[in-house]
Amino acid sequence: MAFISLGRVSALTAVGLLFAGCGGSSQSQVTIPQNLSSIRTTNQHGKSWMKAGGSSGDLIYAPGGCDGTCVISYPALKLVGSLPTNADGACSDAQGNVFLPYASTVTEYAHGGTKPVATLSLPGGLGQGCAVDPKTGNLAVVFKGSGTDVAIFANEQGTPALYGTHIESNFCGYDDKGNLFVDGMSSNNYGLAELPKNSSKFTNYIVPPPAGMPGQLQWDGTYLTYESSDQTGAISRLSISGSSVTIVGMTKLRIQHRTAASWLYDGAAIVPYNVRATRANVISLFNYPKGGKATKTIRQYPPYKKRSTDFAGLTLSVHP
Question: Rounded mean pLDDT of 239-249?
Answer without folding.
Answer: 96
